[in-house]
Design a protein that fits this description.
- The chain is 46% helix and 14% strand.
- Helix 5 (118-134) crosses helix 9 (203-217).
- Strand 1, helix 1 and strand 2 form a beta-alpha-beta unit.
- It has helices at 12-25, 43-49, 62-72, 91-99, 118-134, 145-150, 162-176, 194-199, 203-217, 222-229, 239-245; strands at residues 2-5, 33-36, 53-56, 77-80, 104-108, 111-113, 141-144, 180-183, 189-191.
């Protein structure tokens, strides 16, 4: 399990607790690697306290962090999950069962949101048809190491959407061999709503409408957009976020 992380000390414990719960239901072994992307907080310390192996990736790019974690991994199956997520207790069992079928090239669990609002529902309604159209998903994503390496991993020239690009390439590779990219809907991961907490519940719906303009007419603004949206410093958590991240009981 590869987790790219930059200043994730607040969210990482929730994910690592969910991984431990899933490990307890799984008959095999699971290696957890946190790819620390030059964090300035206690991300590495928190990861180590949960028994995760920490590798440092100096290049400030999430694609590089994912690749660095994958290179350090020893297993034949690679799983990727974002640090602000949490996974279903049956995730590893479901992944193992899916990859036992040679007709599966890899797949993803999909996600459900940690909270809902009219703005988040609107964004969901816009994004789901896109996901269906391209035939991939997000959440916990998995594939065989041999296929990941054959594709060259994540494209480190991309500062965002590197995951979508790789999954589409993985899907094409599978199609050439009669394999499918599968969705494990019964074990959806929990998706953090921190971007909505930070930017407002309608921001993503509006951003989807603006995206074609950015990509076609305002390409020079894309780096500034990436810096602001994905690579900026994390803001302090509010009380509602702290409550959502608190362990049960």
């Amino acid at each position: 399990m590869v987790i790219p992380a930059f200043n994730e000390e607040a969210y990482l414990p929730r994910l690592l607790r969910s991984i431990e719960a899933a490990r307890q239901r799984y008959h095999g072994s699971v290696e957890v690697i946190v790819a620390d992307n030059t964090s300035t907080d206690r991300t590495a310390e928190v990861a180590a306290s949960f028994g995760a192996r920490v590798v440092t990736v100096e290049q400030r790019c999430i694609a590089a962090a994912r690749n660095g974690g994958a290179r350090a991994a020893r297993g034949e199956v690679l799983c990727f999950i974002d640090a602000d997520s949490s996974i279903h207790p049956d995730s590893f069992c479901a992944v193992d069962e899916a990859l036992a079928d040679d007709r599966c090239v890899g797949g993803a669990t999909g996600v459900t949101m940690e909270r809902w609002s009219p703005g988040i529902i609107a964004a969901w309604c816009v994004m789901v048809p896109m996901v269906w159209a391209i035939g991939v998903a997000t959440g916990l994503v998995f594939c065989r190491r041999t296929d990941f390496e054959a594709l060259g991993g994540f494209d480190e020239n991309l500062r965002f959407a590197e995951d979508v690009v790789l999954y589409l390439r993985l899907k094409r590779l599978g199609r050439s061999r009669g394999q499918r990219f599968v969705r494990l809907r019964q074990v959806k991961a929990l998706c953090s709503t921190r971007k909505w907490d930070q930017h407002g519940d309608w921001h993503y719906f509006l951003m989807v409408l603006k995206a074609p303009v950015y990509f076609t007419l305002m390409r020079r603004r894309m780096d500034a957009f990436a810096d602001r949206y994905w690579y900026g410093s994390a803001r302090p958590l509010d009380d509602d976020e702290r409550e959502r991240l608190a362990p049960p009981g």
